[in-house]
Structures are given as structure tokens and as C-alpha cells.
Amino acid sequence: MDRENVQKALEHFKTKVIADSKRNFLGKSASGKGLRSLGGDLKTYPRSFDLDFFMLDYMKYQDKGVSGTKKKYNTPYGYKDKRPPASAFDKWSIRRGLAPRDGEGRFKPRKSLNHAIAESVFRYGIKPSLFFTKAFEKHFKNLPDEVVEAFGLDAEDLMRMTLDAK
Fold this sequence. Notes:
Layout: H1 3-25, H2 33-37, E1 39-44, E2 49-54, H3 57-64, H4 90-95, H5 111-124, H6 131-140, H7 145-151, H8 155-164
Helix pairs in contact: 1-6
């Protein structure tokens, strides 16, 4: 397979992975910032290539999940003793329309709500959505055999390399 065809196959792979990842994550993002951060960069060389997928850091945790102290997931990420900051949930709770009220229907500060959300995430973690992983694996299977064999590619190793590159 010549260099031009390899480049086309990898470019097609990159485009499909990003499009499916965005489709898989649709509706799970309060601000849309994470969706807009999904992208990729491909560089080909005579005997190698460099393919980088990028996204905001927290999107990796959304994809792979995070184990809590009480609920465990099959993920490299987990909480042990440091809790997520309650302030991280402030804009999220506003965008989700979560507004605590007192017994008379008046709005209360979100501070205690944000602490409760942070405590829940600390204990029960974040369930893996695999929005990126599923798209990557689906389209990796469709890469031409010549590309996979020429570079000795393995889906798991390639995903690790392309995500950890930046």
C-alpha cells in the first residue's frame, strides 16, 4: 500500500472516530465545551505516521470512567483520598437547572448542593461512557489490513499512544 493510500485510510479513520465520538457523547455535555475539544492530527512519514487524538482532560475520565471509594469500575482512574472540588460542579449544576430551594420555595445557595455532588462522585465515581473507546475500536476494525500489518498495529496500543501523545 503506497504512502498516499495509507494517508487516506488514516485520515478517514481519524475523521470517523471523531464524528462517532461526538455522536456518542451528544447530550452528556452540559456546556458543549468537551464536544468542541475533540479533534485529531495526522502526520505521515515515509515509514511511519503520527496520529494524535485530543480532547479536554476531563473527557478522558468521562470515557474511561473513574472509580469511587465505594463503587469500582474497570478503569485506570480512581479516587482514593482526595475529593473533587465542589466548585467544579457549580457551572454544571447551573446548566443542568439544579436550583435548591428552602421550605418556602426560595432559592438557596448552591454551595451545599455542589458539596453533595462532589461527595457522591468521590464515593461512587463516574461510570465509563466509552464514547471515544467504542468509536475508536469500531473504526480500527475497518482499517485496511495492509495498514494494520505494515505498522504492526494493535488497537489497544494505538489508542494508548494516540491519546497519551499530548
